[in-house]
DNA sequence: GATGAATGAGAGTTCATTCAT
DNA sequence: GATGAATGAACTCTCATTCAT
C-alpha cells in the first residue's frame, strides 16, 4: 500500500486512494481539522498539504512545512508519496473522483433535464464550497503538476465536463433549452463561476453554500432555458 | 517573441521610478519594433515578464529568465523595478487601469441598461482574450503579491466589480432585470466565467473572441432579464 | 552462523563464504545470471550487488535497488549483512580468495620460471575477464570501504602482489630475466594493465579472454626476459 | 566569461579554460597549494575540487566541502560552474588538453620511432605523477560524469590513444617493433600501467617520477621491440 | 546607468539504518 | 526470520537580492 520510491509516472493515483478519499470527504469547508494523531500518516499529510496549498499556494508551501504540520519527518512523506508533485496529484485525484461520482448519480437520476441540470449545478456548488480548499487549489495549481500528471488530470476533467455538457445537449434536443446554445461554451461559462468560488466565497460570510448553490443554479437555468 | 498583446497599451511602467519615462521615450532611430530591441528596457521587461508569468507561473519564473528574455542584465531590472514583486504589481496596474477605463466609458454611454450591460460584458470578454496572458496571471498569481500590493489590487478590483454591479442594480430597479437577483452574486457569477477564459481559451481554437463575447454576453443577459 | 555483523573486522567474512565463493566462480564473464529464486538469499544479494556496483558504482547504488533486484526486503539484507559496506567487503573477499588460490597453484606448479610467470599472467587476465564485474569494482570502489576493511583488503592485496613479485625475483636470480629490473615496479606495471581490463574490455568485442591473456602474457615476458 | 546556469550540455569545456589550464599546470604533484586568496575564485574552486575528489572520491565530496575549502559560498560555485558534474568535466578537460599537447609535440619530434615512443611513454608517466590528483580522479570518477560529458571525455581519450597507437603502428611497419603485436592491446596494456600510478605511487616514496618513467618506458620498449 | 560576482537561506529529495511487530 | 514504516542528516541546486565598480 505504501508507495515507496515511485520513479515511474505510469502508476495511477490509486496507491493511497481508499483512505485518501475517505479522509477527503470528511474535510469540512474551509480547511482540515487539527491533525489528530488518530488518523494515519498519509491521510494527515494529505490533509495538511491541502490546507497549506490552499492557504499559500503550492510553490510557496515547503515540504518542511507540510511535514511539520502533520507531525512527521520528511522521510515519512517520501515513504508514502513519490514527490511533492505526487501529493498534489493525490489531492486532484480525490476531488475528481468525488465530483464525477456525484455528477453521475445526479445525471442518471429521475426528473426532466431541467431538474437534473439544476440539481447538478447546485450540487457542484455545494461540494465546491464544502471542499473549498480543493477548489482553491484546483486551477491555481494545476500547471504546477508535472506534465504527465497534468495531462491525466486534464483528461479526467474533460470527461467530467463532457458529462455535464451532455445534459445541456439533452435539454437542447428536448426543446427545454434554447436551440442557439453552444453547449461547450455553456459548460465553460458555468464552471468558471464555480471555480471562482474559491476566490471570493468565505465560510464566515453572509451566504450559505445552499444559498449560493440555489442562485447559481437559477442563473444557469435562466440562461439556457427557452424564454 | 510570441506577443499576443494589443499594441495599444501606451502606458509605461512609470510606477516605481522617475527615470522610466526618459528611458521609455527613446524611440530614436525611428525603426519598427522588430525584435523588441527598439522599445525601451522597462517595456521589454514587462512584456517578457507577462509572457513568462503566464507561461509558467510567477514562482516558477526566475528573474534571470526574465532578464535573459529581455536581453538585459539583472542590474537593469533592479534599476527600473524595485523587486520581482514590483514587476507583477505593474502588470496588475496595467490591466486594472485598462479594464476600468473601458467599463467607465461603456457604463456612462448611451442605450438602456440591458444594452450597456451586454456591451460591458462583451467588451470585458474581448479585452480578456486580447490580453490573455494578463488574464491567466490575474487570479493565479494574486496571492503571490506582497500583502500591501495585494490589498491595493484587491481594492482596485472591488471598485471595478462595484461599477459592474451598479449596472445590475440599475437594471433591477428599472424593472429590466429580475427582482430576485443578488447583484453581488451575479457579478461573481459572471466574472468567474471571464477569468476562466485564461484556462480554456486558445487563440488557435475554433472560436473568435467576438463569438465568445457574444455568447457570454447573451448568457448573462438571459440569466438576469425578466422572463 | 547467520550474522556476520562485526565492526571488529577480524575478517570473519567466513559466514557466507562457502556458498559465496561457489557462486562467484560460476558467474560468467561480464555479469551474473538472472538471479533465480533457486539460490539462497545472501548469494542473490551478493550477485545483484556485484552487478549493480559494477554498473553504476558503489555510492550510486542504493540499498533499495539491491534488495529490489534480489527480490527481498531491506530487513533481509540487514539480517545477512551488517551494512552496505559489509556487502562490498564480501565481494572483495571473494575475488581475493579466488585469485590467491589460483596464483598459489600456478606458482607452485611445474615448469621453469618463465613458463610459470607466463601462465600466472595469462590466468589472472582470464580470471579478471571472467569476473569482469569484480574487476571493475576493485579499484574504483576500494576507497569506499570503511578504514578497517580497506586496510584488510589492502593487506590481502599486498600479499598477492608479493607472491607475484617473488616469481619475478626468482627469474631474475636464475638469469632468465633482466638483472636491471625493479620487481616491484614490474608487478605494478603489469597489474595496472590487468585492472584496466575492467575499463576497456567488452565481452562482445573482437577479442576473447584467451587472446588478451596470451598477448598480455607475451608482452610481460618480453618486457622482463633477458634479450 | 562566467558560465552562469548552463543547462545545455552542448557547450564545451572552454568557458574558464584559459585560467584553468594555467592553474592546472602549476599544481604540484600530489595536490594543490593552500588556496591563497591570490588566485581567482573559479581557479581556487577547481584546485580544491581536484584535491578533494582525489582524496575521497567524487561522490564522497560534497559541494559544501569544496566551497568551504575554497573559502566561498555555494552560490559562487554555481555562478561559475553549472553543476558539480561540470566541475569534474573541467578537471577532465584540463588534463586531457595537457596530455594531448605533450604527446603531439613528442610524436612529431625528431628521432626514430623507438626514441619517440620511449620519450612519449616516459613523459606521460612524469606528467601523470606530477598531476597525481588528476590521475587518481581519471578512471575512478569517469562514470560519475553525466552521459553527454562522459561521451565527450571518452572521445577525447580515444583520440589520445589513437595518437599513441599510431606510434606503435609506425614502429611495426618500420620493422623496429615486432610484427605480431596488436597495437590496440599494447596501448591498453601500457595505459593501464600509467593509470594505475594513481593507486600506488607516493610522492614521499623511494622512487622519483623520473625513475618510474625510465623503468616503465624501458619495460614498454622491451615488450614491443623486435628481439 | 548598468554590471555581474557573490551571498545566504532554503528548496526538494535521497538514503543507510533502526526497530516494533 | 523477516518486515516496512519512519528517521534525520546530508545531499545538490536555486534564487531574489545586494553592492563595489
UniProtKB/TrEMBL annotation, chains A, B, C, D:
<keyword id="KW-0804">Transcription</keyword>
<dbReference type="InterPro" id="IPR023772">
    <property type="entry name" value="DNA-bd_HTH_TetR-type_CS"/>
</dbReference>
<dbReference type="InterPro" id="IPR050109">
    <property type="entry name" value="HTH-type_TetR-like_transc_reg"/>
</dbReference>
<dbReference type="Pfam" id="PF00440">
    <property type="entry name" value="TetR_N"/>
</dbReference>
<protein>
    <submittedName>
        <fullName>TetR family transcriptional regulator</fullName>
    </submittedName>
</protein>
<keyword id="KW-0678">Repressor</keyword>
<keyword id="KW-0805">Transcription regulation</keyword>
<dbReference type="InterPro" id="IPR036271">
    <property type="entry name" value="Tet_transcr_reg_TetR-rel_C_sf"/>
</dbReference>
<feature type="domain" description="HTH tetR-type">
    <location>
        <begin position="39"/>
        <end position="99"/>
    </location>
</feature>
<dbReference type="Pfam" id="PF17932">
    <property type="entry name" value="TetR_C_24"/>
</dbReference>
<feature type="DNA-binding region" description="H-T-H motif">
    <location>
        <begin position="62"/>
        <end position="81"/>
    </location>
</feature>
<dbReference type="InterPro" id="IPR041490">
    <property type="entry name" value="KstR2_TetR_C"/>
</dbReference>
<keyword id="KW-0238">DNA-binding</keyword>
<feature type="compositionally biased region" description="Low complexity">
    <location>
        <begin position="13"/>
        <end position="40"/>
    </location>
</feature>
<dbReference type="InterPro" id="IPR001647">
    <property type="entry name" value="HTH_TetR"/>
</dbReference>
<dbReference type="InterPro" id="IPR009057">
    <property type="entry name" value="Homeodomain-like_sf"/>
</dbReference>
<feature type="region of interest" description="Disordered">
    <location>
        <begin position="1"/>
        <end position="41"/>
    </location>
</feature>
